[in-house]
Amino acid sequence: MDDQGCPRCKTTKYRNPSLKLMVNVCGHTLCESCVDMLFVRGSGNCVQCDTPLRKCNFRVQLFEDPAVDKEVEIRKKVLKIYNKREHDFPSLREYNNYLEQVEEIVFNLTHNMDVEGTKQIMEQYQKENRDTIQKNKVKLTREQEEVEEMLLLEQQEKEQRRLDLLQDEQRQLQAKRKNKQALLDELERSHVPATILLSQHKERAALLETQIEKQKQVVKPTLFSTGILMGQTVSLQPVARIEEVLYQYQPIQIHTYGPPVPSLDQLGRLGYLNHVRAAQLQDTAGGYSSGLACHRAIQDSFSGLFPS
Predict the structure, then answer these.
(1) Is 178 left (phi over 0), alpha (psi -120 to 50) or beta?
(2) Is the pLDDT reported for residue 2 higher than 50?
(3) CB atoms < 10 A from the CB of 24, how many?
(4) CA distance 240 to 238
(5) Which of 27, 87, 108, 248 is 20–30 Å from 265 (CA)?
(6) What is the DSSP string of 80-136?
(7) pLDDT band per the 50, 70, 90 thresholds, residue 100
């Protein structure tokens, strides 16, 4: 990000962290100061590609690569025309071909390949599918309104939960203050020994804390979004359970083609450990034991003694 800069005044983000870069339809950047200077009359040419531009079409660069901003803007314009859905096609293959055509149009316009021919294809498509495009625009607007309404409800509910939590904290604080003030008043006026009053105050405080904890554990029902697309039917039937045979461990049978190897417990009685170095303290920390090393050595020496 520090290497980003204006190609005209050569100011970079490293020298001026508050530098605001703007991008237009051609995909080339200019800083905000250069845009105000070059486009005083509202229009002008790009400094890099000499494309005629309007000042009102400049927008803040969001991505590090300005080509990405250009592609995003082109994709928005293309999808306003090519706004068909999967249910508008008789088969999945035709829908995939339609998506491939959309991506090819976006690619051509982004990389300036056969721009005039691509625009003619878009105009021809718009003329032939004018009614479908308008119908899908209305449908998309309704879906957006429903989503915005749902987001607004979630935001209002979140704000209400925050206010309820704040009120609960204030009530709890007031209750603690009243309990403490009651203790001071009893110590001042009562003839009961102070130790008894303090013990009663501790009991009341403990009871108050338990009540507060119970209130915190009460979870209020909240609205949530399922993430299911509008108009999509989803089966809520339980997932079919697949019965499978449980795995059973089978011990490994190793054929060494040699005499049987004594177990670890028999090594000491049979005298195998008499000439093996005893494990030191630092060896045992790493998991070494003289019996294990001797047992492995015997396995290697006994293996293959008998002809196969």
Answers:
(1) alpha
(2) no
(3) 23
(4) 6
(5) 248
(6) HHS---GGGSSSHHHHHHHHHHHHHHHHHHHTTSSHHHHHHHHHHHHHHTHHHHHHH
(7) very high
CA nearest neighbour of 105 among 95, 92, 115: 115
What are the phi and psi torsion angles at 44 (to 5°)? 175, -175
Distance CA 298, CA 103 (A): 69
- The one-letter code for the residue type at 303 is S
Rounded CA separation 225/243 (Å): 33
Strands 43-45 and 59-60 come out as: unpaired
And the tokens for 55? 């000042």
The four Cα atoms 110, 114, 117, 122 give a dihedral, to 10 degrees, of -10
| Mean pLDDT, residues 87-111 | 89
Average pLDDT score over the chain = 82
59-60 and 29-31 strand pairing: unpaired
d(CA 43, CA 53) in angstroms, rounded, equals 6
Asked if 27 and 66 touch (Cβ cutoff 8 Å), the reply is yes
pTM (global) more than 0.85: no
Average pLDDT over residues 241-269: 83
Residue with tokens 């003839």: 191
Tell me if residue 261 falls in helix, strand or coil: coil
